[in-house]
Amino acid sequence: MVRRALLAVLVLAGGAYAGTLRLGVVAPPSLSVGALVDAIGRLPREALLVGGAVLGLVTAGAVLWLAATLGYRLFRLGARLAPGGPSSPKAVFAVGSVVLLAVCFGSMLLVLGGTGSMWDSDAGATGVASDVQRAGMSSSIGAAVEGDTVAPASLSNATGRCSRPTGVDSDGDRLPDAWERNESTPDGAPLPDADPDRKDVYVQPIYAAGAERFTATEKAQLRRVWDEMPVSNPGGETGIALHFVDRVPDGGRMESPIAIANDLQPVRDRYYTRETMGAGRCRYHLVAVGTVAGDSLAGYGDRPGFVSIVDAERVPAYNGSVTFRVAVTTHELLHNTAGLVGGQSHPGSGWLGTGGEYLGNETKRDLDDGFAPPRAYWGR
Q: How far is residue 146's CA from residue 353's CA, in Å, rounded to a whole number?
């Protein structure tokens, strides 16, 4: 009786909700699968482990209870229809459970046997590892980002060490308030839409011959990712404003290849110069889209500093809300701005850690205090 009443209440509630949706009285839920996955990704590892264990135990118990119940009823019915069959409830329960569980496990093995490529799937954790392998990186997420940074040696006057900005810098983005209010550096590098009370990052991309430029969609994704970072600012807003400056002629297209092996120095020496960057040198961040030699990395970045390179060829079917190039560019720019976090290049998880489209707590705390000073460029 109670179960019937509960079922009736659920049916009535469902009908009422469907009716209000139809009439426009209430709006459908806006939570997307992507948003849910991202929210789950922000949970601590301990919470995910405990939640997974509890969910696994509950699911296993429910499946076993259902299998045993169905087996009991099935073979009880068989005993009635087949004279001479087992009639003891205990015997029926035992035989039915064993047979039905055997059918369940047999079906599962049949499915797995018929889908040999399941473990190379493009979904879930196996998909991430597969993406990393296709990107030319290790199947280990930790190893995939290990060694993609370098702390540049102090630049000599011959290579063009630049002056350290002076004056009050309220938001800690290496751009003094006076520059941001004027939307220009003293030597004429434009700082469009700068805000002295909110951190700004100015990005100048360049592209090797034949490399695909960042699309309008990718640029919008980069702006969104940095805008949504929960980094504190003096003005009360969170996030970092990322700006593309695109001041290099021909849309940043270089006439020759841009390639490195295990050091960014060739890119710094050839492209992070006054000739290429103009007054934006040591104010703008250079992102070179070219080639990272070898088969282990898809990007490389100063730690901290102003120069990054993103591989133009390693573009796997990345399962995220942004393109693979955007994910790698975000990772490398965080090396530029955060530097070492708690003595580590890849702290915890998140964009700068071992994976996840969110900013890890350790990195957030460091960026709250401002960008790491690139002493190699400014001098000690």
A: 10
For residue 348, count CB atoms less than 10 angstroms from its CB and return exposed for 0-12, middle for 13-18, buried for 19 or more. Answer: middle
Give the residue among 325, 280, 285 at the shortest CA–CA distance from 301.
285
User: Looking at the 3D structure of the chain, how many domains does it have?
Assistant: 2
Element containing residue 205 per DSSP (H, E): strand 200-207
Tokens of 45: 């590892």
Q: Is 49 left (phi over 0), alpha (psi -120 to 50) or beta?
A: alpha
Are both 145 and 225 inside the same structural domain? yes
Q: Angle of helix 216-227 relative to helix 324-338, nearest 10 degrees?
A: 40
Within 10 Å of residue 159's Cβ, how many Cβ atoms?
A: 14
Domain containing 95 equals: 32-114
- For the chain, first and last CA: distance in Å? 80
The single-letter code of the amino acid at 224 is: R
Residue 288's φ and ψ, nearest 5 degrees, are -95, 125
Kindly state whether residues 275 and 332 are assigned to the same domain.
yes
Of 306, 348, 379, 325, which is closest to residue 42 (Cα–Cα)?
348
* Dist. CA 124–CA 208, nearest whole Å: 33
3-class DSSP state of 90: helix
The 10s digit of each residue's pLDDT in 199-245 is 999 999 999 999 999 999 999 999 999 999 999 999 999 999 999 99
User: Distance (Å, rounded) from C-alpha 315 to C-alpha 291?
Assistant: 12
Q: Pick 263 or 122 by higher pLDDT.
A: 263
Res. 109: pLDDT tops 90: no
Is the predicted pLDDT of residue 380 greater than 70, yes or no?
no
Helices (H) and strands (E) in the chain, counts: 13, 7
213 with 83, same domain: the answer is no
